[in-house]
Each structure stands twice: as structure tokens, then as C-alpha cells.
Input
Amino acid sequence: MPFTPGDPNINRKGRPKLEDSVVTQATRETFLFLLKDNFDNLKHWLDAIAKKDPEKAFKLILEVSEYILPKLARTTIEGDKDNPITWQLVNYAKPGEDDPV
Output
């Protein structure tokens, strides 16, 4: 069925921003159920892996976390010759102290 201009059946607004599709939401719910249902097993599996190779266990935790926690986007801050970026270092140490902590 080709696209025809003026077709009243076309959703011109599309899906609202930040709203997941039905498939995406169902996939997340299924994965969450799988994790909850196997939480005790996951702990035992990770403990067994960590005994042999702690680094591998840590990497596995990081890999699984990518499916649960959103990744943060990198942000670049750039200035230009008319508006350069300046930094100001503030020391909150009391007089006579080197480290404010």
C-alpha cells in the first residue's frame, strides 16, 4: 500500500517522545521477570565465577547493568574565541589547612 498524501489514516503526530513501543516495554518486563525469578541463581553463579576470576565476574555485572541502567551520553563543552570557557578553582580549606576534607 503506497503512501498517498492526505490519507486520513496516517498518524501524523507519531508516537509521543520518550514513550516506549509495546514490544520494547514487553521485552523490558520479560527481562525484569527473568532477573527477579533467577536472582538467587545469579548470585551463586557470580560467586562461582568470582572465585576463579574476579575480573570476569565484575565485567559480567557491568554487561548486565547495561540492560537495566541507562547509559549516559557524553557531553562536550566548547567555547569560541569571543566566549572562551574559563575555570575557577575554589579552595574551601580553613586557613592553615591544605585539604578541606
Notes: The chain has three helices and no strands.
